[in-house]
Design goal:
The chain is α+β, with helices and mostly antiparallel strands. Helix content is 28%, strand content 23%. The chain has two domains: 27-113 and 203-403, Beta-lactamase; 427-515, Lipocalin (Beta Barrel), CATH 2.40.128.600.
Length: 517
Amino acid sequence: MHLSRRSIFASAGLGLLMPRMAAAQAAPTITPEKVAGALHELDDVIRTTLKQTGVPGLAVVIVYRDEVMYLKGFGVRQATRPAPVDTDTVFQLASMSKPIASTVVAAVVGDGLVTWDDPIVKHDPEFAMQEAWVTRGITLRDMFCHRSGLPHHAGDTLEDIGYGRSEVLHRLRYVKPATSFRSQYAYTNFGLTAAAVSAARASGKSWEDVSAQRLYRPLGMTSTSSRFKDFMAAANRASGHIKHDGAWIAKYTRDPDAQSPAGGVSSSARDIAQWLRLQLGRGTFNGREVVKATALDETHRPQIVSGPAADPTADHSSFYGLGWGVGYDERGIIRWNHSGAFNLGAATCVNILPTEQLGIVVLTNAAPTGAAESICRIFLDLALTGKAERDWLAVFGPALAATMAPDYGTTVDYATPPQHPAVALATTAYTGRYHSDLYGPMSVVASGSGLALTLGPKQGSYALRHYDRDVFTYQPTGENAYGPSAVTFLIGAGGNATSVTVENLDITGQGRFDRLS
């Protein structure tokens, strides 16, 4: 089975990496003694994982039978600086924001303002997909379980080139479907965001405000926000890190406001403990109903197969609920899970065994290494069987590295020029104004002795480097940027370019810009 970029994080988290399973057995009962034994070993597990991965810092919280049994920070908030991670350090959650978003929408559903099966256009009449019949029918449920027909990560590159939330959502109408509506799973940050925004509009509030009013404040999550500016204002916050020349460095700051419901929550381990308690309590917290159980239960029910079994006679399929990965292990135990990842420096994971009333969250301040998933899985193994079933870091680390590999530049190494490149045409053959319905205007202009392209709503300028005849390269920026991307001009009969295709924007075949002048 092909795993698309970040699909392990995006779908059922751990489910896609589950080993071949035997027939279901009677589920063992986790006892306080087993949990105590697992907790006794956990510090060593975490320290070993930090040593193996070099991740600068992390925080862990474990809830069992409505009690916070473990709450600790490890390492530092920023590499080379002494400030330690503690239980109140605020981390960016990345895609672990999705099950939090589905909790918020469940609260709005429980209030009677929306249903999971409301069409998005009922509350956001301006929203549109490319096909009118899909626009009329697509629901909150469809988007929260990623069965819209949009291609994986539709809209993400629009965010990368500078478009804000409203414009990205508007431009989804120009995205060509990858599959027929409701036929397949394909993870989309902005599809889920469209549904969340629609639900918030039904309450008469912004997404950020309804999240705070219906979830964070009732649970006393005082360090949690769906606004990037609040994360940046936190004195005790974890910086994101990337690996550079073998060392973890805090180089980038990721602003995820455009996709806030899908990836923009920031929180601390202490706060997340309260959300874990709410999940395990089926919407009840400290004896008070915060979210109606019937609305929250829908988020935990499988809605679509996210990872088909490679061998249906022996393997388990993975499922996606509403903002949750839902799976069943070899013992028949239900697992709810989700991972989060920013290439620019965050990796998180939540795992819940609802029948055992046990949940764990790991928050880290580094691009994904498998550390968060490994710690979650080892702890649950210890609680279930008294031992780690596998070397989980050896499983997750390479698998995540493979899925986080670039989506472009996979056939040609554009960082290395050819030995005998063909000469480019005159600069005037390429300069001009170009347009794409999806990405908007682009210009190619003379810049010094070469060319540059301007792209995005702020017309950011990117230098072009000649590669071979009518192929140039530029360095993209943003969450989905890796090495240089090809920029290929198509030359018409008159000797001038009639169109230009930008490789990193062409992953789904919509990266062509046609000349206007």
